[in-house]
Amino acid sequence: MPFFVPARPYDFALDPRHIALVVIDMQRDFIEPGGFGAVLGNDVARLTKIVPTVAALISLFRAHGLPVVHTREAHRPDLSDCPPAKRLRGKPGLRIGDLGAMGRILVAGEPGNQILPELAPVDGEIVVDKPGKGMFWATGLHETLSARGITQLVFAGVTTEVCVQTSMREANDRGYECLLIEDATESYFPEFKAAAIEMIVAQGGIVGWAAPLADLEKGFAEAMVHG
Ligand code: TIU
């Protein structure tokens, strides 16, 4: 049975039969020193603080037997899926594919490309390597989710205004209802995180809904009590 989660801009009607959690790019590349996030000039330390909240969110979905999707921003070792326009952007010390402190930057299979051990996928969960910022571009994920009857997505991960927001917008255009868990996402720029959330919920939820994890937990707990 659907139940309501207190959210902005208004309560989110969550249907456990049709929902999945999507955890965006909680990989070492963005969260530990020496990865892609750091070579772009960012202070990666501020992203680590959401790890316990993301872990609790994953646990909530697992406890209810609900699907969990993990994405990684990852390129093939031959970089055939990395357009020069992406690889050559800016003036980083190391570029995508170069050898860094955690192996080749943003390349599938390298140590830096692994999801943090605290948040590691378990058997049966969907793991998507995506060459772009959005999770649907060149991944086949829409077909996978559609085959399972998924029409609602709860979002977490990094970074709020880049891969999370892009994925939410892609999901929006494909007909999914999207709920962002505010304290389970983070940006290198606090003002961009705040602005991204405001953009998502503005105009009657033009991209989707937003709520803290506690309100999602409350929604699940009340649904359990009332059957
Ligand atoms: N740079 C930045 O904020 N993000 C990315 O490059 N990728 C993701 O957000 N995953």
General description of the model:
With 227 residues, this protein is α/β, with parallel strands linked by helices. The protein contains eight helices and ten strands. It starts with a strand and ends with a helix. The site of tricarbonodiimidic diamide has 11 residues, from helix 6.
Strand content: 15-25%
Shape summary: globular
Number of helices: 8
Helix content: 25-40%
Alpha-carbon Rg, integer: 17 Å
Number of strands: 10
Fold blueprint:
Layout: E1 3-5, E2 12-14, E3 19-24, H1 28-31, H2 36-39, H3 51-63, E4 68-73, H4 84-87, E5 99-100, E6 103-104, E7 126-130, H5 141-147, E8 152-158, H6 160-173, E9 177-186, H7 190-205, E10 209-211, H8 213-225
Parallel strand pairs: 3-4, 3-8, 4-7, 8-9, 9-10
Antiparallel strand pairs: 1-2, 5-6
At a glance:
With 227 residues, the protein is of the alpha/beta class.
List keywords for this structure.
227 residues; alpha/beta; two-stranded antiparallel sheet; 33% helix; 21% strand; globular; binds tricarbonodiimidic diamide
